Amino acid sequence: MPDFFRRKPTFNRENADNDGPVVPDGLWVKCAKCKDLVYSKDFERWFRVCPKCDHHARLTAKQRVEYLLDSGSFEEWDRGIVTSDPLNFSANGDRYSDKLRQTAEKSGQRESLITGKGRIRGYDAVIAATEFGFLGASMGSAFGEKFVRAVEQAIELRLPFISVSNSGGARMHESTFSLMQMAKTTAALSRLGEHKLPHISILTDPCYGGVTASYAMVADIIMAEPGAMIGFAGPRVIEQITRQKLPDGFQTAEFLLEHGMIDKVCRRSELAEALSLLLLHYTDATMGRRQPDYVYVSNGLGEDGS
Amino acid sequence: MPDFFRRKPTFNRENADNDGPVVPDGLWVKCAKCKDLVYSKDFERWFRVCPKCDHHARLTAKQRVEYLLDSGSFEEWDRGIVTSDPLNFSANGDRYSDKLRQTAEKSGQRESLITGKGRIRGYDAVIAATEFGFLGASMGSAFGEKFVRAVEQAIELRLPFISVSNSGGARMHESTFSLMQMAKTTAALSRLGEHKLPHISILTDPCYGGVTASYAMVADIIMAEPGAMIGFAGPRVIEQITRQKLPDGFQTAEFLLEHGMIDKVCRRSELAEALSLLLLHYTDATMGRRQPDYVYVSNGLGEDGS
Amino acid sequence: MTATTPAWERVQLARKPERPHSLDYINALISGFVELHGDRRFGDDPAVVTGIGAFNGRTVMVLGHQKGSNTRENLDRNFGMPGPDGYRKALRIFKHAEKFDFPIICFIDTPGADPGLGSEERGQATAIAENLLALASLRVPSVGVVIGEGGSGGALAISVTDRLLMLENSVYAVASPEACAAILWKDSSAAPEAAEALKLTAQDLLEFEIIDEIVPELEPAHEAMDQTIQRTGDVIERHLAEIEAIASDQGIDNLLEVRYQKYRNIGAWVDKQEEMLGELPTPMTASGNPGS
Amino acid sequence: MTATTPAWERVQLARKPERPHSLDYINALISGFVELHGDRRFGDDPAVVTGIGAFNGRTVMVLGHQKGSNTRENLDRNFGMPGPDGYRKALRIFKHAEKFDFPIICFIDTPGADPGLGSEERGQATAIAENLLALASLRVPSVGVVIGEGGSGGALAISVTDRLLMLENSVYAVASPEACAAILWKDSSAAPEAAEALKLTAQDLLEFEIIDEIVPELEPAHEAMDQTIQRTGDVIERHLAEIEAIASDQGIDNLLEVRYQKYRNIGAWVDKQEEMLGELPTPMTASGNPGS
Ligand SMILES: [Zn+2]
Ligand SMILES: [Zn+2]
To answer: C56: nearest CA in chain A?
Structure first.
């Protein structure tokens, strides 16, 4: 076994799969959008959101979990589940199995989804978060199996289910196996719903293809980070096929809100607050317990979570 | 009691509430759309559809029942139900109760809906048909009560329910009572659905307001006659409020088909055939009996029912 | 206000821009309100607000027509006139509530459904009708409150609830007095007379047993906003508790039966079958189907 | 055809315009077919045909992607690529079938879902996802048949059925060979190699246990249309009778459980947890939430 996990990824490393800042030195980071320099510690403190232009840089699954969950509360599940390359796939001499090994080494993850249990402001929840650094968070067999097991655990434990997703599209190397994970993950959510447990979906940049056309868009509540690009087909494909110029802001989170596809655009800094408020409402009602020591604001979500 | 029913309405009478042909003499009728003269007997034989321009003239409820049902099969229900003028309504000195009496005398009906049981090509069904000549087939208390009783009878008898509607809008003289008939009729259909009995809705010219915004648009199958005007708000209201020019063909049956609101535009001459085919499918499956002696065409509905 | 206040005065009070609107009630009565957006089909209609929150310690879904308090806000909110997308957003929330057994509270305040070209194209009638159908059999308790204007089918589409309440100075009718006057008086300046004739006040509708209770306005709501909203909350709570008790003690099917009978029994008619028999011609039958 | 026919040849056969399309199957196999139209929301998508009729004496709802047999027809039918309105028409029919306990037969034949601007605006992803959700728990038996191209999510959206069949010369994959070649070979002319690598033939998918049976084509379907369609009807009948028997003998909940397990078990993965234990660093935990 290669030693995937020895090299602990650091937040500030350069990462070709990442639209985050390029680090000119250890102290300053350069915003990928406005190109301004931001003091590195500020950048981390603001959850890798540029304080100047509000650009939400992509997160690794690990960062996401760290930012979202209460400190030390995450218990990861099914870390050993990996794909078995059912097609024995190779493209132009490049073997899928080799690619998986290289990707694992580079990303520090063995698959494009991590799952587990954690707490958000005191509320227990099952969480599944995608790893874009692992083959663009494409949905392969391992992704699907981990997702479904997590949903089944949520049913078993009677916990709400939160997914945080981005994805570049299909895992072509697994062809129809990849496609069928759309049906598999969604079927599991159908069961979750029958048990009256909520699924809250958080869409992050970029979110396309099989993920949006399956579990991520049939949640009870859908939120997206500002500026996140979200759609079925990618903008280049659409331009190429339709030969139409795409309008400004097409497929952004704000565009989806305007077209009725999501419930809320939520800044990263407010996400834990927003989720905890929702978990409060669902937990009280469907999980048969109250957490009256939790004091919520009476006039709803403020513009500034903390 | 005034003698509402002595004067049997004849088909060719002039009728201000009717867009049908004006009769220059007893033998010929003049089409309201193309203005051509049509031999009166032909016109009747073609269900009051102009053979030259296919204009579907409005029918009285009685004509509708005669054209649609197997000869002699209709059994009318609840003929005695009339409104009781709950608001003691009068407008500008004109009393609603007087208007009801005048309308009844003119139309030969006591309310804007007739209901009953009949057969269509051998298939039993409950039928409700509106009478446009009675205050523009507006939905008042008596309409609602007759409709709901008919639906309840359909449940009792385990029969499919067919509504044939047109309507000019609300019965203002009954105000909120009129409005609430929308809830009342639709609630009854909800029960019909729970009993797995189909509701097939036929929309005819013109169909607006409370009728379209309630029972007529939540049917399992919706068909409309060619050229029928169908909508929520009337075209004049829309033009007046939005100051927009309405596009050609706006709110026609064909427009609704294109916009996904109805299943089929069906010529009057094909209606009985189309209905009987549907009744066959639903009767077989949900009413637990087959009528194998009925031979249907294997390639579906032809363009010419007979 | 007294029970003899002219109907037309009620209409004007009900329409006052300063009057509290749905979000005023929601923000005051619903703790931790999270607004939810969109119909998942086409758009997010600002004339309907909806979301999840806690009402007196229980999770509920709330929704309402949303008017603006000034012209600018009203333009943004389309004067509280929803399109089909607004009704489909409401429908989504109704189904969401049903899935999780959350009760529903609806605030009704609209001149009517939007009469625009786009609304017709996307099935305004269909959208309203589907809501009526859904509400009739929705397996959770529901309370509706007319807080301002209850305008026609556009109001009805979110008001087919287990209990229907009205603020003292709200109105509810099948058409606006102006429209009614234009049609039946041939003169829209006869709106005050039409308002009277339409019997659209809370007092009228309570007498007709179409609504269940009037929330009194000791002063008009816009002059005593907080007290009016709190009083409304108290009346909602009492009714919600009653229907929740029916649902939990007798089962939800019983609540649905009560709801069905409530709407099934609205109507003012008589059966004159008996006295007609003597004077009728032969009963009507189909005398021949040329097609068969 | 033999099992060793190259994948690329299958792709070309599957795409042949002369090949029988959904309406050819429907018109031959469904008696008294009545086509139903519209999504009741926005439009009537001609790339999806659907309706009610009798299949071997029982009432069924049928639907399928509809390609044209020539360029003009294909332009009318958008080459069989549905927009969200097409998927919502299908969803309406699924719910209709469920309401009346009618089994569902789906014919799958699409290059994929429409990738246009309007489709994105109206929620193509949402529409597909909602169909997957609905099909997973639909309380009636269903059979799907890939008759030509099974293209990606656009095919999947109507193929999550109790039994999934494929014509011998049909294909089913997560992406077209051309798209796959463009991305992984950086050269779309490598489509034949990509077709081979994608394992998209009926034979491959039967071996993977993703489909339940292959309908043999003794000659390619377009050269023996009637026989192929009749043979397809026979195979559908056999599967439909089997799942109807499960539903009636063991109850519909059992059929749903079988369906769930069918899709739940698709996937090729191993659990290497054991062998990893020794070499892993400390298990990953959240090391600090700056916001809490
Ligand atoms: Zn920046
Ligand atoms: Zn003519």
So the answer is: A298
